[in-house]
Amino acid sequence: MKRTMYLAIAVVALVACKEEATVDYMVLSGKIANMGPEGLELRKASDTGFLKEISLASDGSFLDTLKVDQGEYMLYDGKNVLDINLEKGNELQVNYDYQNLESSLFVAGIGADASNYLINKSKQKKDLLSPKLYKLDETGYKTRIKDFRDSLVGILNTKEGISKAFKERETKNLEYEYLGLLKNYQSFHSYHANKPDFEVSEGFLKEMEGFDFADEEAFFSYPSYKNLLRNHYYDLTDERIKANPSERDVISLKVVAENGNEKIKNSLLFEIVRSGITHASDLDAYYKYFMENSTNENNKAVITESYNRLKKVAAGQPSPKFVDYENHAGGTTSLDDLKGKYVYIDVWATWCGPCIGQIPYVKELEKKYHGKNIEFVSISIDAEKDHEKWRKMVEEKELTGIQLLADKEWNSDFVRGYSIRGIPHFIVIDPDGNIVRSSAPMPGKIEETMELFNSLNL
Fold first, then answer.
1. Secondary structure of residue 156 in the 3-state scheme
2. Which pairs with CB-CB distance under 8 Å and at least 24 residues apart come from 228-233?
3. Backbone dihedral region of 20: left (phi > 0), alpha (psi from -120 to 50 degrees) or beta?
4. 136: which residues sit within 8 A by CB, 6+ positions away?
5. 45-61 pLDDT, tens digit each
6. With a threshold of 0.85, does the pTM exceed it?
7. What is the DSSP letter of 281?
8. What digits encode the pLDDT tens for the residues 394-450?
């Protein structure tokens, strides 16, 4: 009798030990050779905003224990984006060279099969989404994207090291991805095939009939569903601004506010405004509409903080100043040195592709307005270690105007004063040092830029 009782207690104790040993975390480790200046961030695939910083040692190695929701994530190092999957019990090792991700990438450890699948999928998708694809006719395009989906489903089902939960989730995600590609065809084919009036034939989008744009579970579970909704609202915005292009900012919020699911509406509104508020042409109207239509108090508090910062750099307010920034031509330059002229400022960096893409347009503006009452100033926020890279690029690209280097990169008082969260960023200041536009149009948007300059009688 006692022996039976002791045996029962032992079994209970064993079960209890097993329950206590349940793993509810993931371990992420690895090493990035030749790491760049930006550091390493973990981001949720369905929400590309910052989630967590991964601390790096001086040699680029890292080790972190994570307690996050299971699902797809992105590792972002300022240059490279790497898709990974995280599930409880994973012990993932990620190694690569910052300068050459594809040829050096090695992912191993517990749970690596799912991440390697995502990495392979990302490569295939990059090859798929080319102008050549979008130039195909409707039949060819639909066949190609179906083959892409079916091929990945086949790969997924033959991988034994991938969990059943991931396979089920990814199969559904692939279906949303297919529908998203289907929905994008009209606008992309119109552009790449140079057919501005192109419209898909009746029945091309029959698989979208009855699609639920307010599926809360899908929105927060499947990145492709969320992307599909984003693109859907981009298209609606483009359609509606044709009648009133000056209200584009608020219209982009109005179409999202029509979503019947409160959590989806709040999420998309916040996502748009979080980045868009720094570029809003009518800050007050933009902020007011968001506050009236969002019901998430935390989101409203974040946006209110941004709004209050941006009010300090509204048109007519004194501009934040930069003082004694290094001038590529020699010596230093401060904003006060430029009083008496309008100042057009381009905040950029040598590592920023879109910034470099704007250089030809900036040079064209400088040439057109040479001798006018305006100074063109480019402020690089490159790190001190890239000082020589900045100097060389200015020379190699034959950059004109006043070329300056900020003192503390993103943490420079001038950059922080304007709440700049992304580059390139353009600013116009009047001859008295007051703000004309804290977020001016990019020079590549030539019509908007010329309209602004004409309003200043330049």
1. helix
2. 228/176, 228/179, 228/180, 228/183, 229/259, 229/264, 229/268, 230/268, 231/180, 231/183, 231/184, 232/183, 233/268
3. alpha
4. 144, 189
5. 766 556 788 888 989 99
6. no
7. S
8. 999 999 999 999 998 888 999 988 888 789 999 999 999 999 999 898 898 888 899
